[in-house]
C-alpha cells in the first residue's frame, strides 16, 4: 500500500508528488467536489495500514492549500468495506454533496449487496432502504433491492463499476461475487440502473432501466429528512452534529463553491472533411486540396529563393565596400582634393591626422608628384609672394619632388 497523492497538470504537462498523509491506504474511493477555492478531494473506505482498527474517517484534501483534513462521520454507519464503487451528486445551490456507495467486500472476504449515502458537509451516513411496493414488510431493513431483484443479487458484488448518468442515475456495471455455487444468479458482466433522486420515491423502485428524460438530480425525501431543505437544495445541516472542532477551516471551504472553467480539446478536429476515397482516380473533391498544396509549396520555395538572392546581394555589396576601403585608405583626402582651390596647397605635415603615427616621417618624405585638377579653359595665377614649389620636409634629402 502507498500513501502518495500524485497529480498531473495538463497545462504544464508536469507530474507532482504530494505526500502529506503518512498512512498507506488501498481499496477506497475518491471523488472531486466543487467546494473551496479550487475544489476538494474526498477519500473514504478501503484498508489502512496502521493499528488494524476500524474507523469511519473521511479524508478531505483542499486543493487550493494542498492540505489534508480528517473528519469523523456519524449517522447509520455502514459495515467497513473495500473494493466498492460510488458516484457523487450535489444540489444546484451547492449546499450539500451526496456520495452514493454500492457493494464491496468486508475484511473477512464477504461480498456486500447494500447501498449507503455519505452526506456532506454534515458527514452523515444514510442507508438506502428498499423502495419496493411492499414497503411494510421491508421498511425496517437495510435490504436494498425490491423482491424481484433480491434473487438477482443474493451475494452482492465486489469490484463493480459505478458510473453517473445524466447527474441523476447510477449504472452498476460488472463486478463479481465470491460464492461459486450461486454464480447463475447474476452474470459478472451485468448492468443495472440505480435511481438516485426523488424519482426512486415517486416510482417506488430503486432499481430501474435508464431514464433519458431524467436530466437533473432532485434530493430524495429520505436524504432531505436528514440534511433539511428540499428536493432542490437549501440544506440546513451545514456542519457535523458534533461540530467542526479543529477542522474549523472546513466550514469556510464548504461555504465556498468553485466553478472550474471548461476545457476544450488541444487539437482541432474538423467534422466537415470529406472521407478519403479508395478510387485511384482523382475526384473533384481532391483537386482543390492538391492545388492548395502546390501553391503552398511553390510559395515556400519562392520565398526561400528570394531570401537567398537578397542575402547574396547584401554580401556582394559588403565585399565591394570593403575592397574600396582597402584601395582608398584615405577617403577624406580625396574629398579635400575635389574641393581644393585651383592653386597648390601644402602637403600634410609629418604628423598630420591623416598619417599613421606609427610610421616615421621619413617614409612620407619620398612622395610622388600629384597633379591637381584643372579647370576647363581657365588659367589662374598664383598669389604674389608664394613659393610655387615648396620644399617637402625631410631629414634625409635624398630626393626632392615638386608639386605641379
General description of the model:
InterPro entries: Gal_Oxase/kelch_b-propeller, Kelch-typ_b-propeller. Residues 269-298, 326-404 are annotated as: Disordered. Keywords: Kelch repeat, Membrane, Repeat, Transmembrane, Transmembrane helix. This is Galactose oxidase. This protein has 404 residues and is an alpha+beta fold. It has a domain at 5-254: 6 Propeller (Neuraminidase), CATH 2.120.10. It contains seven helices and 16 strands. The strands form five sheets. The chain has a five-stranded mixed beta sheet, covered by helices on one side. A four-stranded antiparallel beta sheet has the order 4-5-7-8, with no helix packed on it. A hairpin with a 4-residue loop joins β1 and β2. The model is unreliable at 130-152, 275-291, 330-370 and 392-404 (pLDDT under 50).
Amino acid at each position: 500500500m502507498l500513501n502518495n497523492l500524485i497529480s498531473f497538470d495538463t497545462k504544464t504537462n508536469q507530474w507532482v508528488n504530494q505526500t502529506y498523509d503518512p498512512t498507506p491506504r488501498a481499496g477506497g474511493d475518491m471523488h472531486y467536489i466543487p467546494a473551496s477555492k479550487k475544489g476538494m478531494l474526498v477519500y473514504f473506505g478501503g484498508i489502512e495500514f496502521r493499528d488494524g482498527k476500524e474507523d469511519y474517517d473521511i479524508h478531505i484534501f483542499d486543493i487550493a492549500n494542498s492540505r489534508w483534513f480528517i473528519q469523523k462521520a456519524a449517522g447509520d454507519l455502514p459495515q467497513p468495506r473495500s473494493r466498492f464503487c460510488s458516484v457523487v451528486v450535489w444540489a444546484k445551490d451547492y449546499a450539500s454533496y451526496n456520495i452514493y456507495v454500492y457493494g464491496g467486500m468486508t475484511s473477512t472476504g464477504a461480498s456486500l449487496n447494500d447501498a449507503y449515502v455519505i452526506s456532506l458537509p454534515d458527514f452523515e451516513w444514510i442507508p438506502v432502504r428498499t423502495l419496493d411496493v411492499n414497503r411494510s414488510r421491508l421498511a425496517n431493513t437495510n435490504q436494498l433491492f425490491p423482491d424481484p431483484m433480491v434473487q438477482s443479487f443474493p451475494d452482492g458484488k465486489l469490484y463493480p463499476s459505478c458510473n453517473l448518468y445524466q447527474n441523476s442515475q447510477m449504472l452498476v456495471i460488472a463486478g463479481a461475487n465470491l460464492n461459486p455455487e450461486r454464480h447463475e444468479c447474476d452474470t459478472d458482466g451485468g448492468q443495472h440502473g440505480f435511481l438516485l433522486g426523488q424519482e426512486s420515491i415517486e416510482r417506488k423502485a430503486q432499481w430501474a432501466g435508464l431514464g433519458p428524460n431524467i436530466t437533473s438530480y432532485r434530493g430524495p425525501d429520505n436524504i432531505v429528512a436528514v440534511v433539511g431543505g428540499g428536493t432542490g437544495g437549501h440544506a440546513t445541516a451545514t456542519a457535523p452534529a458534533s461540530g467542526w472542532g479543529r477542522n474549523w477551516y472546513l466550514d469556510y471551504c464548504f461555504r465556498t463553491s468553485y466553478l472550474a472553467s471548461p476545457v476544450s480539446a488541444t487539437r482541432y478536429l474538423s467534422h466537415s472533411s470529406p472521407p478519403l476515397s479508395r478510387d485511384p482516380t482523382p475526384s473533384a473533391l481532391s483537386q482543390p486540396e492538391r492545388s492548395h498544396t502546390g501553391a503552398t509549396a511553390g510559395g515556400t520555395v519562392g520565398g526561400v529563393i528570394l531570401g537567398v538572392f537578397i542575402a547574396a546581394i547584401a554580401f556582394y555589396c559588403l565585399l565591394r565596400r570593403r575592397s574600396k576601403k582597402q584601395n582608398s585608405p584615405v577617403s577624406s583626402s580625396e574629398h579635400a582634393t575635389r574641393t581644393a582651390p585651383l592653386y597648390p596647397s601644402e602637403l600634410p605635415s609629418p604628423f598630420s591626422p591623416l598619417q599613421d603615427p606609427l610610421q616615421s616621417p621619413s617614409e612620407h618624405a619620398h612622395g610622388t608628384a600629384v597633379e591637381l585638377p584643372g579647370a576647363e579653359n581657365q588659367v589662374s595665377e598664383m598669389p604674389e609672394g608664394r613659393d610655387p614649389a615648396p620644399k617637402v620636409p625631410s631629414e634625409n634629402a635624398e630626393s626632392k619632388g615638386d608639386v605641379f
